[in-house]
Design brief:
It is built from 14 helices and 18 strands. With 447 residues, it is an alpha/beta fold. Strands 1, 2, 3, 4, 5, 10, 11, 12, 13, 14 and 15 form an 11-stranded mixed sheet that branches. The longest helix has 15 residues.
């Protein structure tokens, strides 16, 4: 069978989905075996009209018994299936599939030139190719892909640097490579639908590490059957654009099957701090959180991980897991990012109607009242909690899972504020469940 190198690119629509679908369609072809494919490298468009979106580019190595002209026809058919229109050679495209190398053949016909005539000049071709096929040789130049790649001039400072991994094995291998190079790695686990709060975690990781990895995975095991897993907001393309603009180096965006392959049955029992509050309202939630976070720490053995204070109990659960299981990673909990009117940023805020959005301000107002009362000398939890609940009810919020003051370490309810404490609220605004919290006590300590 012939060993071939393919280039894949997309800068229109959901770029990741387009490339993964092209690979899926390629795997369905008779006498074509996809041996391996690279991560996705973000690059600037080359040529074409102004204002094009950046490309994601990948490479794939295949084995085939198809003749070169047959293989080219297959690639063009996949392009057509994915909506590629060849009205503008350099214009935006849902998918671009190039046959770069076909064994050691050199071909010059009106329909096909092999090796691809410009592949040795282009970083967006050689970078993903070198990742998976550095030892393949260019038959005309008698150089390996690695040798061609090292001859390229360094990338421009304006060139985007985001790389997207969908494979746990590939992401782990890359993280271990970075560690061998003594690069300090930071990770920001997310479920996507990114907002400024998430991006502040990317910035916090950047301040503490040389390389930043963000993960995007809506984890099914932390949702109960009655919860909003199916409608949880997802917009991978917008998320990748936001991460790129924030200067993130890597995004890990696995599928459900990648994280929970068939037969997967191991889960992590969460620590005692998971039992009150969310543990009562959402049974099984922290079992899913503990499992996915520990899996991510195995896949991405980073030096530091950044989480948001808004999910206060989650942060305490993760800290306890890391301490109890001797996971060699630093956990940093970053301040809540709020809208100008005080509403804590949340992916679920987009569920709110305009009226519910105004109603939701009661959460931060109630927490602000708790902070004011403590600063004024009130320390009886009963009094403070009553004031918090009154503000929520006056706003028309009646479905309150909890509004409480708790010990910041154990999250057990406290009868009075003596030193540090945390005020926490979980309630429904319409059908949307929101959470928020405020640190109370000496100088509003850092979480």
């Amino acid at each position: 069978m012939a060993i071939c190198l393919l280039g894949l690119g997309s800068n229109l629509g959901d770029r990741t989905a387009n490339i993964l679908e092209a690979l899926r369609l390629l795997r369905r072809q008779a006498q074509v075996i996809v041996l391996r494919h690279s991560s996705l490298h973000e690059t600037l468009p080359v040529g074409g009209p102004e204002g094009q979106a950046n490309f994601l580019n990948a490479a794939a190595v295949i084995a085939t018994q198809r003749w070169p002209a047959e293989l080219l026809a297959i690639l063009q058919d996949i392009e057509a299936q994915l909506g590629r229109k060849r009205t503008d050679r350099w214009g935006p495209r849902t998918i671009d599939l190039d046959l770069l190398l076909y064994d050691q053949q050199v071909i010059h016909t009106p329909e096909l030139t092999l090796p691809h005539p410009r592949m040795h000049e282009r970083r967006f071709v050689l970078a993903p190719a070198a990742e998976i096929a550095g030892d393949l040789r260019h038959p005309a130049l008698q150089s390996t892909i690695d040798e061609l790649f090292t001859r390229l001039p360094p990338p421009s400072p304006s060139e985007p640097k985001l790389r997207v991994f969908t494979s746990a094995e590939g992401m782990q291998r890359e993280t271990l490579r970075l560690r061998r190079l003594s690069r300090r790695v930071g990770v920001v686990p997310t479920m996507g639908s990114l907002h400024e709060g998430h991006l502040s975690l990317v910035q916090a990781a950047r301040e503490r590490a040389e390389v930043v990895v963000a993960t995007i995975f809506v984890n099914p095991t932390q949702f109960a059957p009655s919860e909003d897993f199916s409608k949880y907001p997802r917009n991978l393309e917008a998320d990748l654009q936001a991460l790129s603009a924030a200067g993130c180096d890597y995004a890990f965006v696995p599928s459900r099957e990648e994280m929970y392959p068939e037969g997967s049955s191991t889960f992590v029992e969460p620590p005692a701090v998971s039992q009150p509050l969310e543990g009562v309202c959402r049974p099984g939630h922290f079992r899913g959180v503990a499992t996915i976070v520990l899996k991510l720490f195995q896949i991405i053995p980073a030096h530091v991980a950044c989480f948001g204070q808004k999910d206060y109990q989650q942060a305490q659960v993760i800290r306890r897991i890391v301490a109890d299981l001797n996971v060699p990673i630093e956990i940093v909990v970053c301040p809540i990012i709020r809208e100008p009117d005080g509403l804590a940023m949340s992916s679920r805020n987009r569920y709110l109607s305009p009226a519910e959005r105004r109603q939701a301000l009661a959460l931060s107002q109630a927490l602000g009242e708790a902070e004011r009362l403590v600063a004024a000398g009130e320390n009886e939890s009963e009094t403070i909690v009553a004031a918090m609940r009154n503000i929520l009810r006056r706003a028309g919020i009646t479905r309150i899972d909890y509004a409480t003051l708790a010990d910041p370490e154990t999250l057990a309810e406290v009868p009075r504020v003596e030193g540090r404490a945390v005020a926490l609220i979980a309630c429904f605004v319409g059908t949307t469940r929101l959470i928020d919290n405020r640190l109370l006590g000496p100088e509003n300590w850092r979480a």
